Amino acid sequence: MSEVAVIGAGTMGSGIAQVAATHGWRVRLVDVDAAVANRAIERIRGQLDRAVERQRMSASDRDAALSLLSAASIADLGGCELVVEAIVEDLDVKTRILGEATQIAPRTAILASNTSSLSITRIGESIGCPERTLGMHFFNPAPVMPLVEVIAGSASAADCLERAVEIAAAWGKTPVRAKDTPGFIVNRVARGYYLEPLRMLDEGVSGVSEIDQILKTLGGFRMGPFELMDLIGIDVNYSVSRSVWEQLGRPARLQPHELQVRLVEQHHYGRKTKQGFYSYQPAHPYPAVVVARKSFELPDDVYKAVRLFCQAGTDESGSITEQYVFARTLAAIINEAAWALDGDVATAEDIDTAMRLGVNYPRGPIEWAERIGRRTCRHLLDTLNRHASDGRFAAAQWLRT
Ligand code: NAI
After folding, report:
1. 335: annotated active-site residue
2. In a 3-state reduction of DSSP, which class is residue 155?
3. Cα of 210 to ligand 1 centre, how many Å?
4. pLDDT in tens, 356-379
5. How close is the Cα of 86 to the center of ligand 1, in Å?
6. Which residues pair with 110 in a beta bridge?
7. pTM of this prediction exceeds 0.90
8. Smallest Cα–Cα separation from 310: which of 296, 330, 334, 338?
């Protein structure tokens, strides 16, 4: 029977353990001590019990999955084909623990990290097994989210990557392949969905709830950017923004926004503190970040470029302000996806799959760009760029071909 060790039994590790066990893999769950891992197994039991109650799983499948899970220590890794690390996001801790695991696990075992922001190449080099190290980036909650980004470090062996893709698929997930670059696919390409709305809010183009509504209506996004930041946690979202921006050399288009910093300083993290872009007190959310609305007139060239972009970009009609909000946001997302293509981060198909399954976009950004027309996307970006002082709308090469 195939065996996996999951190290780190927190939010992600316990989710990954549940996924593996429900797909017939024996799981050794390792944390700082057996009590933590056992508590995680109890949480998994609770999840599976609920699945049985809702008739999504049979009682015998639940029992079979639970019988495959056990709390373990690093010393028990001798039979594992795969080690998945989901420990705290700290390179030194990950290196130390994975380094110990390599001493015990078989010499052929694949060493996968679930890191969101650390370099896979660096982890592989630090533990002295760069060929067997790769990323398997699951999304939260792991039992529900269908996507796994399989990340190739610069020395990851092709057969290990192939096997990781096979395992993710055998666990019922949709794997996409990505190069080891900051934010991989999803955490990078999604930046435009947060940053451009933040800038428009600050410019007084529209308010929090209006921008959310516009993107849901015109774009078909399931949640608006401010609702989503409140759900993810403004602190978490800001730290991802900052990390991707810094690691990519601080390009203006990815610069985190002052409003994020201010909310983090005030400990207004969103739903978890009951205050973020919305207030959740007493119960009904209402916009909590108030920005002076300005009446503005779009320059003629921007007006025309927005109208043209929206003709193919959305089936919904809207006022010019609504179309402007939608067009600026979608153009930023498309441009980031195009920059990722320029950098060979992933194929167009994998970028689209990742954005549909990782963050529920109604369409992949590359498919959207082709539907609108690369020339029309580039025309909007060039026009916006002429009016921007920081050059952040500079179009990627892919949009110029
Ligand atoms: P968490 O804080 O819920 O769990 C981390 C676990 O690691 C804890 O149970 C902790 O006791 C354990 N741990 C710490 N030091 C350890 C050690 N020396 N030996 C064994 N276990 C140790 O963290 P979470 O959210 O599950 O994140 C884990 C990893 O997954 C991080 O690298 C994070 O960046 C990544 N990730 C997190 C996502 C999320 O939405 N939470 C999404 C995708 C990736």
Report:
1. no
2. coil
3. 36
4. 999 999 999 999 999 999 999 999
5. 5
6. 82
7. yes
8. 330
